[in-house]
Amino acid sequence: MSPAFSRCYDPTGARYGIPTYPWRLAPDDLLTRRQLRARGLRPGGQPVAAQIMRRSPRRKSGAAIAYLYRLDLARPVRPMTPGRVRALAAAMRARRTCPGCRSDAGYCIPTSLGLCVTCAYPA
Predict the structure, then answer these.
(1) Residues of 13-51 as b/e, b for ≥16 C-beta within 10 angstroms?
(2) Upper half-sphere CA count for residue 109 (Cβ side, 13 Å)
(3) For residue 75, what are the β-bridge partners?
């Protein structure tokens, strides 16, 4: 058993406080938020059941962590209401509108430029 594997494998939760599994070795009934969303579910207020961990040289702690939730306690995703649809459309329209020429650029304005490409580079 490699040292990295033993550091990430703690199914009892004695080391980290919650059960910890290595990347891709968690039980099938525990899913991440993204995995729940892909199935049309959400955590629904349940506490974190476990975590998965893998080594990551980019992280300051040296490990990347993802929280896991129980599948049997997950709830269906709430449907979009007309008000939420309007609010999302208004937010996306604001991100696409150039503050310089006040036109819809057809894409989200880069925050690094602050303007559409046509206004940022007129030549």
Answers:
(1) eeeeeebbbbbeebeeebbbeebbeeeebbbeeeeebbb
(2) 23
(3) 42
Cβ neighbors of 35 (< 8 A, separation 6 or more) are none
At a CB cut-off of 8 Å and minimum separation 6, what does 83 contact? none
pTM of model > 0.85: no
Burial of residue 8 (CB within 10 Å: 0-12, 13-18, 19+) is: buried
Residue range 35-91, pLDDT digits in tens:
999 999 999 999 999 999 887 777 777 778 899 999 999 999 999 999 999 999 999
Q: Which residues are 42's β-sheet partners?
A: 75
Cα-flanking dihedrals φ and ψ of residue 88, to 5°?
A: -65, -40
